[in-house]
Amino acid sequence: MGTGRLMARLAPWMLAVCTVAAGCGPKAVRGSDVAGLDDEAMGTGLDRKDLQRMLQINLDALQSSAAVKRWESENRPTVAVLSIKNETSEHIEGALSALISDIETSLVNAGHVRVISAEDQPELMEKVRAQQSDAFDQSQVADWGQQVGARYFVTGKVYTVDERQSGERRVQYFLFMRVLEAATSDIIWQNKTSVTKALVN
């Protein structure tokens, strides 16, 4: 057997021995154990911290809006949170589903509305995902409101602008959110926030 073939066959075993004996392989760590680990960006992709930051800015804007004053005057109307549309090239559907729970939690804790869990209505949510677009069809929104008993819907989308030049890359992510009145499809509040990620030389 030639030296090259022998080394190729032994390489996995040598790597395993090196990892066990000397600890020279990757080591798994927790953010709670390593100061600043959750703060560092590992690339230009969206991460949990980016989404949470954009969501919090939007929710703060909602809490100080005329929409909340309207809800207070209506004595806690019913609200359902629809899906957040992913218009990026990234696979972040799981993270966006988690945002729905975060939005619901924020609304429940603020106490201005009664929150109906649209996720408990799988047939409705499938219809929403199938036809979701920038402009909701008014008759559809009214029908969804009747199905779940919601007077208002909160929804949104994430989209991106990607720029590259001379080996550098800058990506801007936007989280756009709005509140719709179910009966009329009127937009009673909307807001957009962004975060920028970059790879520089």
Key phrases:
single chain, 201 residues, alpha/beta, Rossmann fold, 2 domains, five-stranded mixed β-sheet, 5 strands
What would you say this structure looks like, in words?
This protein has 201 residues and is an alpha/beta fold. The chain folds into 2 domains: 40 residues, no CATH class; 156 residues, ABC-type transport auxiliary lipoprotein component (Rossmann fold, 3-Layer(aba) Sandwich). It is 41% helix and 26% strand. The protein has a 5-stranded mixed sheet, sandwiched between helices. Strand 1, helix 4 and strand 2 form a beta-alpha-beta unit. The model has no long low-confidence stretch (mean pLDDT 78).
CATH C-level class of the largest domain: Alpha Beta
Q: Which structural category do the helix and sheet elements fall into?
A: alpha/beta
Beta-strand portion reads 25-35%
Net shape: elongated
What do we call the CATH topology of the largest domain?
Rossmann fold
SS element count, helices: 6
Gyration radius, rounded: 23 Å
Q: How many strands?
A: 5
Identify low-pLDDT runs. none
The overall pLDDT, averaged over residues, is 78
Could you say what the CATH architecture of the largest domain is? 3-Layer(aba) Sandwich
What is the number of independent domains? 2
- Name the strands of the widest sheet in spatial order: 2-1-3-4-5
Q: What string, H for helix and E for strand, traces the elements in order?
A: HHHEHEHHEEE
Largest sheet: 5 strands, mixed
- Classify the helix fraction into a percent range: 40-55%
